Amino acid sequence: MTLIKIDETRCKKDGFCVQACPANIIKQTDEDRIPFMIEQGRQICLRCGHCVAVCPHDALDHQEVPIENSPKIQKNLAIDGEQALQFLRTRRSIRRFKNKPVAKETIQALIDAARYAPTGGNSQLVTWTVHADPAHLTHIADLTIGWMKAALASDAGKHLPPYFPRFVDAYEAGINSITHHAPCLVIASAPGYYDNGMVDLSIALSYFELTAVASGLGTCWMGLIARALRQDSQPLRQSVGLPDGHTYFYPMVLGYPKFKYRRLPERKPATIIWK
Lowest-pLDDT range, 183-187, 189-193, 231-235? Predict the structure, then answer.
């Protein structure tokens, strides 16, 4: 099978696939002819599936994005603008979790959903490192607090955020403000050579956390762990166990929220610069 195959008995020659292809590898010499892939198409194709998705006649198939693995969009599952806004406003940073583990299958489902986040050039290079052992999450929190203590004791301590000492004191009093006793921690990473890694990772994590909300779960972005990793905390790096040479964005804890939120607090008005 060629990379792109067009069923001439189904094709209506409307050229939608030609117009939708971001790599411009599908051509149509005139409106009376069947579109075709250019000679260098296999090397240039982004494997994005736009051509399969846009054809209203199911006339186009792609060897690596097959039509049988591309289900039709179900109109009954579409949400309107009001529903979308409430859903987005429902997401909150969760710092109090139930003492309940998250099933491996549930975590896998969230990551599978995050696979559909856009990536530069459709590279799809995101890797997920998952920690679901409560004892190990406590160890990660211990190492992060250890880094914070060392940072406070160093010459740079006076330049650190004012909440550092409070977090350390609270931790020693039994209040875990690092991983919040969450049952799971995930880190998205990408190869360091990939220039668009940080952008792709942040989008993938956003997909992950929004899908978590729809699944009755909550998340929180772990800025302190991210900061400790950036500051070359070698014990923490070894404990987190990211793939060699990978860049990463904020780790994220995951679990079942302890509380149910019932209102949608307002935020600051958007800053918009019209041109």
Answer: 231-235
Separation of alpha carbons 214 and 224, rounded Å: 26
Residue owning tokens 């097959």: 66
Read off the pTM: 0.93
How many residues in the chain? 275
